[in-house]
Amino acid sequence: MEILVVREPVEERTLDALAEEWHRTLVKGVADIKRGTVALGGEWHIDANNKLIEEGSEQENLWGFNIYPKEKGDAAIEYNSLINIRPLQGNRSMEIGNEETRKAVRRVVALAIPFLNL
Length: 118
Known about the structure:
Blueprint: E1 4-5, H1 12-22, E2 27-32, E3 37-40, H2 45-54, E4 62-67, E5 77-78, H3 99-112
Antiparallel strand pairs: 1-3, 2-3, 2-4, 4-5
C-alpha cells in the first residue's frame, strides 16, 4: 500500500489496512497544519513527509504523529517523530512540545480520521 494522502475522511478499515501493512498496531502520519492535509502510512514518518512535500507542502508546517487505530481519544494519538526535531522552530525533541502545534495537528487529524474521536 502506498502513502495515503487523505482527501476524504478515512474509514476504519482503511486505517486498519495501513496498520497491517506497515507496523501492525500503529500508523505513522504527517500533518500539514497550514494546508490541513494529512499523509498516512510508510515505514518512517519521512515517507509521508516527502509525499506531502511533493504535493506542495512546506517543511516548517509538517509535523509527525502516530495513530493507534484500535484506540479512541487521547490514547489514539501520540506526537512523536524524528521529523519533529526542529531547533530553529523551538522544538528540540521528537515530541511536539508546543501545545498550540499539538492542537493544530490534532484538529487536522480529527478531520481526516473522525472515528478516533479526537
